[in-house]
Design brief:
Length: 237
C-alpha cells in the first residue's frame, strides 16, 4: 500500500478531459471523455489490460506475460492495488460504457521506495528494467518532490487506436496533476506509439536507452522491433 492518498475533498470519479475524435465504425466525429476509473469497472479494466496491454506492449509481449499464469496473477494484484489509489483513468465514448482505453496511473512516493519482488521472473525483468531507469534518474532529488504521478500501463483498445485516444489519455494528466497538487509525472514509454503522443502533450526525454543496451545489462526483450525505450517526464505548472 502507498503512503499517498487522494485528497478526500476532491470529487471522485471525475472527468478530466473531453475531446472529439472519429467514431469507431464511421468517420463521424463524436465525443470521448477521460475520467477516473470507477470502482465498478476495475475488474473490466484489469481484464482489458490482461487481454490487450500485456500482449501488445512490446516489453510485456516479448517476455510473454500474457501467457504466464503467475505473472497474470501478480499483475492482477498490482493493478488492484493501483486502482485503490483512485488515480487510474479510463476513456469512454459518448453513449457507451465500453472501455476505449486506460492508463493505470499511480502516485509514487519517496516514503515508499521499497523493492518490488515478483515470483514471475519475466515480470521481474520488466519491472527491474523500469525501476533501474527510475533510480538512475533520481526523480525525487532532481525535482525536489515527495510524490510524482507514474503509470503501470497505457492501453487503447485495438479498434480505437490511431484516432488520438492515447494522446488524450496522457493529456488528462495535466488537469489531474494540478488538482492533485503534483508537479511531475514520469513514465517509461517503450515504443513510438506512446513516445509520439507523450512528446505531443509535453513530456520530454529523461533517459533514453536502446533495447540493445538493456540486453547488455541483462534485460532481454527478444523480438522487440523498436530501437529506443524512453523514460519521459512532464513538469506540470
Ligand atoms: C500506444 C497506444 C496506447 C497508442 O494509442 P493510440 O490511441 O493509437 O495513440 P494516438 O492515436 O494518440 O497516437 C499514436 C501516434 O503514434 C504513431 N505511431 C503508432 N505506432 C507507431 C509506430 N510503430 N511507429 C511510429 N509511429 C507510430 C501514430 O502515427 C500516432 O502519431 P500521429 O498522430 O502523429 O499520426 C496504443 O497503440 C496501444 O494500446 N498499444 C499497445 C500497448 C502499448 O504499447 N502501450 C504503451 C506502452 S508505454
Amino acid at each position: 500500500m502507498s503512503s499517498w492518498s487522494r485528497p478526500s475533498e476532491l470529487e471522485w470519479p471525475r472527468v478530466w478531459i473531453r475531446f472529439r475524435a472519429r467514431d469507431v465504425d464511421s468517420d463521424r466525429m463524436v465525443e470521448y471523455r477521460v475520467q477516473d476509473l470507477p470502482e465498478d469497472r476495475v475488474r473490466d479494466a484489469i481484464d482489458h489490460m490482461k487481454e490487450h496491454f500485456l500482449r501488445d506492449e512490446p516489453m510485456c509481449g516479448s517476455v510473454g506475460l500474457y501467457k504466464d499464469p503467475v505473472a497474470l496473477e501478480e499483475f492482477d494484484l498490482m493493478w488492484q492495488d493501483i486502482a485503490r489509489q483512485q488515480v487510474a483513468v479510463v476513456c469512454f465514448r459518448e453513449g457507451s460504457d465500453e472501455i476505449v482505453g486506460l492508463n493505470m496511473l499511480t502516485v509514487v512516493s519517496k516514503a515508499d521506495s521499497k523493492e518490488l519482488k515478483f515470483k514471475s521472473s519475466a515480470l521481474q525483468t520488466v519491472c527491474d528494467s523500469y525501476i533501474g531507469l527510475l533510480k538512475q534518474a533520481h526523480i525525487f532529488e532532481k525535482y525536489g518532490i515527495e510524490n510524482y504521478l507514474s503509470a503501470w500501463g497505457l492501453s487503447v483498445s485495438p479498434k480505437y487506436r490511431g484516432r488520438g485516444v492515447g494522446t488524450e489519455l496522457l493529456r488528462a494528466r495535466i488537469p489531474m496533476c494540478r488538482a492533485l497538487g503534483l508537479t511531475v509525472t514520469v513514465t517509461l514509454f517503450s515504443n513510438p506509439g506512446s513516445q509520439i503522443p507523450a512528446a505531443k502533450v509535453g513530456f520530454y526525454d529523461e533517459i533514453v536507452v536502446t533495447y540493445k543496451q538493456l540486453e547488455e545489462q541483462g534485460y532481454l526483450f527478444p523480438g522487440v522491433p523498436y530501437e529506443l525505450n524512453k523514460l519521459m517526464t512532464m513538469v506540470v505548472e
